[in-house]
Design a protein that fits this description.
The protein is an alpha+beta fold. It is built from 18 helices and ten strands. It is 58% helix and 10% strand. Helix 10 runs antiparallel to helix 11. The structure holds tetradecanoyl-COA.
């Protein structure tokens, strides 16, 4: 196992280390994946144009059965399932590209397909035994069976480890008996196969739960509640599911008994990337709609596209879409290269993807103005559909905490080891040597990003400077607060924001560098412009976060909120 900082590009940034070989050159799909993907995209576009009426799907809260059958016929239920089990065997980048297309065409369909394969059957792909794969994957690949991911419970949303569903091993050891219920299960109304997470240890206060993952067939006794009535993605099915004495054969345990939490987290790592790619697709649709609108709508005798404030919106929409696309396909490339832990990158893509998209929906609707608000036009449906992305697959709040705490874990461990080494200098000498080496290197100057094209050297310097800031702020807060940092969400927020923007900048720099190398400075002009624009925007945020570490009004905010909890309502009236 390589050292932590060599396992993850973003985790390395928390140490001040720029592991640029992990992100340069910007990844590309294999020729085979590119060819297969182009063919799939062609047939997807043709099929959607001829058969999919998104307004109707939204209105009727249902994807028509003939559309679902058509999607199955196109092989869209088995995109990542290996060919030997009847799927298309796409890699992560190719899969992301297809989900991007479908997300842009119809989010309800994207969510249905995503729930099936980004998360529903993913644990079988990642952790299934050869026998489980042989039993389940062929029918899931054709769509004869559909899958769902059943983790969330009424008292376990963000706190996924708090699930109460129990799995008791039968006295003869042949099967588990599952009892409990799950909420907000996408595809819950019709899925045939569920990845269910249940406790296989007693519920003990303060103790680490033992959670186990199971493949559960509907026929084993899973019952569904009615479809929830939702703000958006109305064509997708979201239901409660009930497990009452559901007998699950022991051979349906996924991965190891008691290691199900890791199974859930690994599945979500991949799911979050699928979500981000869907967001890329929707963002691109909005850019297209906005560009049409600004060229057709006239005001004060001119196309509105000529006004500065519209140009400001359009330029931001483009730069943010470029950054999101760059981040998502960099992370997907990291997955395809199988060389790194991509948990932080996928969480970042999910948070940034959902928020960039939300901002773009807002601006796109604003540019459309009056018609943007009318249900006859697509904006209001897109707005409703986009909102969920900030909530599901990990709320953006819990994911910010995850990004910060998981990123700080490495430096935290290192600091603890150094403290120990200082107490026991002889035994700890080796560790201190490594740490001292890195400190010495940092003292000599910041880490460099050497593989970035010189045309982007100003942006590369910003990246280097703030990487070093992230590492020193991390060290400062860890030294000052130690384990207390786990409770300090305002600080976690700043750390997470910095890490997210640094990853985004790195992705843009790597991609734009590849573009310049391929097409020369003029040929890559647009990529360079968008990278510079994104970096300018990110730079302002980074500067602000760094200054907020020193001076902020965190305590005032906490006090205002706490007092209002006691008041129970807004405390004033003008009368
Ligand atoms: S599905 C439901 C989604 N639910 C969530 O995402 C739950 C969010 N909560 C969490 O992720 C966890 O509870 C957190 C951990 C992170 C808060 N990779 O002590 P810990 C390891 C690898 O921090 P906790 C849905 O919405 C960690 O290192 N490992 O745990 C679908 C540690 O390991 P070790 C990870 O404090 C909707 C251990 O776990 C990760 O309890 C349908 C414990 O960690 C990780 N990421 O909290 C979607 N995280 O013990 C369809 C933690 O070895 C979408 N660990 O140190 C389709 C989209 C289509 C497109 C749409 C277009 C518009």
């Amino acid at each position: 196992m390589p050292p932590l900082i060599e396992q993850s590009f973003t985790k390395a940034l928390f140490h001040g280390v720029i592991a640029e070989d992990m992100i340069f050159p910007y990844p590309e799909m294999t020729a085979e994946d590119r060819q297969t993907t182009s063919m799939i995209l062609d047939s997807v576009r043709r099929f959607f144009a001829a058969n999919v009426d998104s307004a109707r799907i939204d209105r009727e809260h249902k994807i028509p059965p003939e559309v679902l059958e058509g999607l199955k016929g196109l092989g869209l239920f088995g995109l990542q399932i290996p060919t030997e089990h009847g799927g298309s065997g796409l890699g992560a980048s190719a899969y992301a590209r297809v989900m991007q297309e479908i997300g842009g065409l119809d989010p309800s369909i994207a969510v249905t397909l995503g729930a099936h394969q980004s998360i529903g059957l993913k644990a079988i792909l990642l952790f299934g035994t050869p026998d489980q794969k042989k039993r389940y994957l062929p029918k899931l690949a054709t769509g004869e069976h559909t899958a769902a991911f059943a983790l969330t419970e009424p008292s376990a949303g963000s706190d996924a480890a708090a699930i109460k569903t129990r799995a008791e091993l039968s006295s003869d050891g042949s099967h588990y008996v599952l009892n409990g219920s799950k909420i907000w299960i996408t595809n819950g109304g019709f899925a045939d196969v569920f990845t269910v997470f249940a406790r296989t240890s007693a519920l003990e206060e303060g103790a680490k739960p033992k959670i186990t993952a199971f493949v559960v067939e509907r026929g084993m006794g899973v019952k569904s509640g009615p479809n929830e009535d939702k703000l958006g993605i109305r064509g997708s099915s979201t239901t409660e599911i009930f497990l009452d004495d559901v007998r699950v054969p022991r051979e349906n345990v996924l991965g190891e008994v008691g290691k199900g939490f890791k199974v859930a987290m690994e599945v979500l790592n991949s799911g979050r990337l699928g979500l981000a790619s869907g967001c890329v697709g929707v963002a691109k649709q909005l850019v297209r709609l906005a560009l049409e609108r600004v060229q057709e709508r006239r005001a004060f005798g001119r196309n509105i596209g000529e006004f500065g404030l519209i140009k400001d919106k359009i330029s931001r929409m483009l730069a943010e879409t470029y950054a999101l696309e760059s981040m998502t396909y960099l992370a997907a490339g990291i997955v395809d290269a199988k060389l790194a832990d991509y948990s932080l990158e996928s969480a970042i893509c999910k948070v940034k993807g959902s928020e960039i998209l939300w901002g773009i929906v807002n601006e796109g609707l604003q540019i459309a103005a009056g018609i943007g608000y009318m249900a006859d036009y697509p904006y209001e449906r897109i707005l409703r559909d986009a909102r969920i992305n900030l909530i599901f697959e990990g709320t953006n709040e819990i994911l910010r905490c995850f990004i910060a705490l998981s990123g700080m874990a490495g430096p935290g461990k290192e600091l603890a080891e150094v403290a120990k080494a200082m107490r026991e200098p002889i035994k700890g000498f080796g560790l201190l040597g490594d740490f001292a080496l890195r400190k010495a290197r940092a003292a000599l100057g910041r880490e460099r990003m050497t593989r970035c094209h010189p045309l982007l050297s100003r942006e590369a310097v910003i990246f280097e400077d703030y990487t070093s800031e992230l590492a020193s702020q991390t060290e400062n807060v860890l030294r000052k607060h130690g384990r207390e940092i786990a409770e300090m969400q305002f600080t976690q927020y700043r750390i997470a924001e910095m890490a997210m923007d640094l990853y985004a900048i790195a992705a843009c720099l790597s991609r734009a560098t590849r573009a310049i190398e391929r097409r020369g400075e003029d040929g890559a002009r647009r990529e360079v412009d968008l990278t510079q624009l994104y970096v300018n925007m990110a730079h302002k945020r980074l500067r602000q976060h760094v200054s907020d570490f020193a001076r902020n009004d965190d305590e005032l905010r906490k006090a205002v909120a706490s007092r209002s909890y006691a008041d129970g309502a807004y405390p004033f009236d003008i009368l």
